[in-house]
Amino acid sequence: MRWDDFRRSSNVEDERGDGVGGGFSMPGGAHGLGIGTIIILGLVGWALGIDPSVLINGAQILSGGGAPTQQSGPPPADDAQTAATKDLVTAVLGDTEDRWTEIFAASGRTYHPPRLVLFSGAIQGGCGVAQSAMGPFYCPQDQQVYLDMSFFQDMQDKFNACSSDNACRFSEAYVVAHEVGHHVQDELGVLHTVEAQQASSGQTASNALQVRIELQADCYAGVWANRAQQKHSFLDPGDVDQALQTASAIGDDRLQKEMQGYVVPDSFTHGTSEQRKRWFLSGFNSGQTSACDALSAGSL
């Protein structure tokens, strides 16, 4: 992946020196929209000998501890690898702003880009205290994407989502574009509608709605990649395959099988590996948001 031609966004806040410690709360439903949440919580439970489903289900409602303690200071000095990752995140966010501005304008809408907050460890945000264990996520309350860049290293080391630093770059871009996809849903009013439906639904139905939200965000990430490729020809051979490998690595079915030895489809909140790959490709191959109507699709 080559991102030199991407415009760097001015909507990135580096708060890595201003984290918080202690407990955190993670709203369920359409608020805690991080693709890494189930992955990290499941691995923590697995490592500690705790049923991962207990941690995952509990975190969907409320997970907390003592009062957070503020830790202030300047962002740490970056090594070359971290600096390159921050530059990629800033560049990808900038290009999503440009591409979604064009897409919205074509239908007579105005796109209002989100802010992206870089943090380390934990940070107070509009959806409560965000911790690295939640993975990257979008918070509708403050319309910000939260990202601890250490997730990208975990993606390579722990989840085998890509094979090397260079090969991981488009996978990292996919993660950012997925979270921006949730902001697009927010801009279109989709998140509010689904949240209302989830509030009056049982857990199984609520999870099913969440799967559709996540798959649509995957599709929107594919739409961005299509439009960016048309504009910049930024993809190298194998980049899309690496993104599909990432999508496969974080499918609910694969994670549950690896963590607990069996699969519980009713508990899915992000979709299967095949579903995530299919919906990303639907957006990437078409470049059209009309290909991303996962909410009303009869079959996922």
Structure description:
The chain is 51% helix and 9% strand. The protein is α/β, with parallel strands linked by helices and 300 residues long. The chain has one domain. The strands form three sheets. It has a five-stranded mixed β-sheet with strand order 1-5-9-8-3, with helices on one face. A hairpin with a 4-residue loop joins strand 8 (137-139) and strand 9 (144-147).
What layout of secondary structure does this protein have?
Elements lengths: L11 E3 L5 E2 L11 E2 L2 H12 L3 H10 L7 E2 L9 H27 L8 E4 L3 E4 L2 E4 L5 E3 L4 E4 L2 H8 L7 H23 L2 H10 L3 H30 L6 H11 L2 H9 L12 H14 L14
Parallel strand pairs: 1-5, 5-9
Antiparallel strand pairs: 2-4, 3-8, 6-7, 8-9
In short:
With 300 residues, the chain is of the alpha/beta class. The chain contains ten helices and nine strands. It has one domain.
